Automatic annotation (TrEMBL):
It comes from Tripterygium wilfordii. Pfam families: Lipase_3 (PF01764). GO terms for molecular function: hydrolase activity. One of its GO terms (biological process) is lipid metabolic process. Signal peptide: none annotated. Residues 119-257 form the Fungal lipase-type domain. This is Alpha/beta-Hydrolases superfamily protein. Keywords: Hydrolase. The keyword Hydrolase applies. The lineage of its organism: Eukaryota, Viridiplantae, Streptophyta, Embryophyta, Tracheophyta. The keyword rRNA-binding does not apply.
Amino acid sequence: MHDNDVLLCGTELKLKHKDNHAGYNHTLAKILVEYASAVYLSDLTELFSWTCSRCDGLTKVHDICLTYYVGTCSEIVHLRCISSYVQCKQGFEVIELIVDVQHGLQGYVGVAKDPNAIIIAFRGTQGQSIQNWIEDLYWKQLDLNYPGMPDAMVHHGFFSAYYNTTIHPGILTAIKEAKEIYGDLDIMVTGHSMGGAMAAFCGLDLAVNHEAQNVQVVTFGQPRIGNAAFASYYSQLVPNTIRVTNGHDIVPHLPPYYYYFPQKTYHHFPREVWLYEFGLGSLVYRVEKVCDDSGEDPTCSRSVMGNSISDHIVYYGVELRGETCRSCGIVMDPRVAEYRKTDIQGNFIFSRNPAASVLRLDAQSDV
């Protein structure tokens, strides 16, 4: 097959572009978008024990047993009043859940059996603040020289969200623990929106500063985070990277790209995969176009106006935002207290020993 050949299967149309950079795997992208969706949960008990409804698709609970008892729910934040049972499934194990309350950030590290890898996921901007965050993206300046990369510039806010918060040491600790138990697994990093920006910095950090050999980054609806020099360094150091964009999603268009100032403007790194739809008569075809290696392919998402928030919050049919009723707060069950560590700023980490095959959250109430 030749460059930009078109594959048509049912109502799904896929355009492929061949070269030596990252290859796009449709199935893997659909798996990782579910991990990126799960990290938005504000019910930390469900997320840490991996019993959430968003965890039931391609991602399954891995040797984690959650025991419930009949009791009064008024005494416990999120205890379900049901008969006693034990739930155990296979597939994914959360090792560490990090909540940076001070900066409104959240992420987790776990181990998946399929794919056989360490999964790291970062949450995007939450709830009602997303509109203000998008408006702020128009004005973010390239104001920080990326360490060790001449001429590479990024925005300090994106950089600091990963490097200068509770998230950074928490992620590194969890990776070390996972590798001590499971060996030298591949690492897959994902995130949506602002979480995609953090995922990109995480992948770069692991490859450059921690000598990780097999790092793959897949982001969804990620904003631009640096200039052309940064994008060039990034694509060489983390070549196995896919940025998925969707329709008219506004966020990948921000901060703005000014083609007439190529050395002074923000610039995406490759490889973009653009999801969009087009109609032929009564049929609507879904297209997954693998874009060129410039990072700013004018025939992909840059070919349309970036003016949609609704295209930003649904990728591959998966919703990427917090639940409306809980997006502004945290739900936490007292049963997970023994797994929680809190710092002086009020940020907390839920951590479990991956060597222990069973996480038990026994919750017998005083009745």
